[in-house]
Amino acid sequence: MPEFESADNEIQVIPVTDFRNVDGDFEHRLPPPSATTNAEEYLQNHPDVHLSDEAIRRLVQGAVEPQDLEGIRVERHRVETGWLMVISYRAYSPMVSLAIENDRLLAEVSYAADPHAADVRKALAMPRPHTEHAVLIHPDAYKDIEESVDRSAKRVLTDNPQEVGERLVERPLMLVPVTFKSETGEPADDLTAVDGNCRLAFCYHRIPPVPRGWVDDSLIGDASKKRVVLRPSHLMRMSLERRRELVRKVIKAAYSRLKAPRTGSSADIRDRNKWAMALNALTIPVTVIVGYRDDNAQRGMQRFPAGVRSLLLRMNTGGKVFADGAKNAVKAEEIINGLYDEGLLGPEAQARPTRDALIGRGDVAASMEGLGFNPELPDLRFALVMQHLTYKSPRFNALVRSKLQTEGNLVLSRRNGPIVELGLRSYSASMPTNSPRTALETICLWQDLVDNSWVVENIDTDTKVDELLGRADTGETQATLLLGALGMISLVMSGHLLAAAGSAEADAGTTIARTSVGLITKGLLAQREGRLILADAIKRVRAGLPLRWWDTEKQELVEQKTDWRGSTYNAMLRSAVRHGWKAKAPGKEKKTPAEQEADKLTVFQEQLSTAVDRLRDLFELREKNGTTDKLAWVEVEASFNQIDDIADDLRLISERKPRNR
Amino acid sequence: MTAPVWSGVVTMTPDRYAALAHLARPWLEEFRCCPLGIDEDSGREERAVYIVVNADGMACYAGRTRPTRLPRRGAAVSRLRQHTASARSKYEEWARCWVLPLQPDTPDEFVDWLERTIQARLGLPRQNRRWRRS
Predict the structure, then answer these.
(1) If phi over 0 gives left and psi between -120 and 50 gives alpha, with beta otherwise, what is residue A509?
(2) What is the complex's ipTM, to 2 decimals?
(3) Structurally, how many domains does chain B consist of?
(4) Residue B54 within any structural domain of the chain
(5) The pLDDT of residue A318
């Protein structure tokens, strides 16, 4: 059988090291474990490497050329509070794990902040610092971590396709060593991506389904399946040795396929390409964080997690899928952690529960209770977020500005994003938050919230809401602002206060206030009727009842009309803010038949004028072109007939033309 | 002499004014059945739809006014002053105007509706295609 030449569309294995086999060709080759000893010793003794021996072993064993790590230069990378120490080299992608939390999904997962959060799709807690090592400690249950990692891998595969395989991964991935509190025998440490999750997920994805025996059999459901698709969680729970073994087997399988004679068929080319892509995706350039030195030596590793996190935002700048929501979520968490670190959340006994309640990833119920709030009510937590992020002081403003990476003033639009993200966490499990997010993003604040200092009170019963309303009616600022905040949250989260839609004027039958949700709330607060609506909304939404509307004739709250939808309520609310609550103009409900006919006549007459204009356009064009030819009769006959018909028909329904004779 | 910018399709007559006033009926403040000089004080109305006629008496423009701040004089004449002060052709060709004064609490959308309907009845474009700001 003749040997076929390699085809044009065949993907080549790209050399990544200087190693050449006996034929002089590049070949992937897993180095023997013995090659790692010197490098391990070198890193263990390096003053800028702050890692345990296990972490160093994992790092070295994952390297494509571990001998090069001996004598490697440790570089410094500046972050806000200190220096991150990093080394750059080439690693095997299966030896690296995905980021434990994919921040791209931060706006979508369910948070402990929602009192109704179930056990699925949970947002993991923020990583904690280690006492002496530059590692992140993930406190969550191992199965939650596995679930989260598999979910984000699945998501990025569809959301953010990467050209991995035909080409090598070209820009380095940022990695950080982590540890887990594993109690069931899984590895207690790992090396995970900080940036580059998408590319890493695609590297895994390029490995064709592997035989069962290559991964831990206990992981795989159905025993009848001979081959399994590798999932990130499979890799994570393998021991270091088994993981290396897997890499070796993949290399071997790839070469045994690629060295088979070509048959020239397109199926053959496809299959060869699959394995060539697997090899090209098997190694990645990495930059690993191996140490951290805080500007304030007293702080040790305390601010290491924040430092790592801050890298994330700066790196995700290119045209990649990192939605505003997710960006704001990361910034918001940075702000809260920053406020906590700088002691701006009050004394420690109060600061810690405040931080946990605001971030909303864990210990939320206990924290809310510790702060004296009823943890069952999501609106109280949302309001708490508003309170803390509408604060104003030189130190607060400077910190928030730096976290938002803005030089300018802390205007409402800049404060708004983080507030929306943290606030919505209270509802992340119980309902889809897309529509409320759109409404809140119109800006859910008004200036009074910033200009006055106000605090959330534990308004957790209808009686307390009524008392709050009473105080607001007397003009008390604190009560007014709190009523506005809670009422705004209730109206928005129940879908009764939306972003102004195109059809709102038609719904309301008049013009409406098209301003932000915050300014609508301010407008509602200004009038007694509006305050009543706000207070009633708080009570009704908490009780799960439909909202009521203000009847201007009866002068009381009434059930909404049955044909009202959320958008109708929104339109009415906005029109009331614009025009006040006075009774509607008479004759506005429905047009009389005569009015309807008059409108139809108007439309006809306007169209007629338009037709006249269009004919003039033609005249002007002919004049400009110097055209003098007559139009062919057959081309205009139909038009003349229509014009005659119009005149005849109109005459049928019109009075006779008066004659002055 | 250039061609006039402000021509019309029909002449304004008391009959026609009466018909248009009928349209405005629920909100009409005063039946003011005569044309006023373009500079003449039109009264003390707060909102109005007005019809401008040229020297031939042809209806050449219809507009509405519903100012947010109260004008010192009638709303219609204030608005007409702005028109004639800003465009030479309007100053030269606009001769008189007929005013449909409306009650102060006339809803905005009714004022807008009335303007649109009157423009249609008079065969006037919503925008004059030959007019250029001068």
Answers:
(1) left
(2) 0.79
(3) 1
(4) yes
(5) 39
